[in-house]
Amino acid sequence: QVQVVESGGGLVQSGGSLKLSCEVSGRTLSAYDIGWYRQAPGKEREYLARLWDNGLKQYEDAVKGRFTIFRGTTKNVVYLQMNNLKPEDTAVYYCKYISGPGNAWGRGTQVTVSS
């Protein structure tokens, strides 16, 4: 099994920044992608960004230019740097391990942006 753990959420003022971490462990493949998603109260889970194993990055328009997905010094840790946060960014943020045989989700980390 693959375990996914997010961390780094918290309370921040509008315009502030947070850096979320996603750590994967367990029986991971040598090649896999990582996706970041979020879910606000009363809304469906929303795709934010994806980091392919080959280094390609993709962002949803709502966060393009403000959020950056990147891998740490070890392959199993991926970050989501979030800048210029807005109250509408308030949500639970989830990391997703993506591979051919199957995917795995973390339990999420809460991000709250105050106005």
SSE blueprint and pairings:
Layout: E1 2-7, E2 10-13, E3 18-26, E4 33-39, E5 46-51, E6 57-59, E7 67-71, E8 77-82, E9 91-98, E10 103-105, E11 109-114
Parallel strand pairs: 2-11
Antiparallel strand pairs: 1-3, 3-8, 4-5, 4-9, 5-6, 7-8, 9-10, 9-11
Question: What would you say this structure looks like, in words?
Answer:
It contains no helices and eleven strands. By secondary structure, it is an all-beta fold. Strands 2, 4, 5, 6, 9, 10 and 11 form a seven-stranded mixed beta sheet that branches. A four-stranded antiparallel beta sheet has the order 1-3-8-7, with no helix packed on it. The N and C termini lie far apart (40 Å).
Summed up:
The chain has 115 residues and is mainly β. 0% of the residues lie in helices and 55% in strands.
Keywords:
115 residues, mainly beta, 4-stranded antiparallel beta sheet, 11 strands, globular
- The outline comes out as globular
* Low-pLDDT residue spans: none
Query: Helical element count?
Result: 0
How do the helices and strands follow one another from N- to C-terminus?
Answer: EEEEEEEEEEE
User: How would you classify the helix and strand content by structural class?
Assistant: mainly beta
Strand content: over 45%
Q: Determine the mean pLDDT.
A: 96
How many individual β-strands?
11
* Main pleated-sheet profile: 7 strands, mixed
Question: Which range best describes the helical content: under 10%, 10-25%, 25-40%, 40-55%, 55-70% or over 70%?
Answer: under 10%
How far apart the termini lie comes to 40 Å
Computed CA radius of gyration, to the nearest angstrom: 13 Å
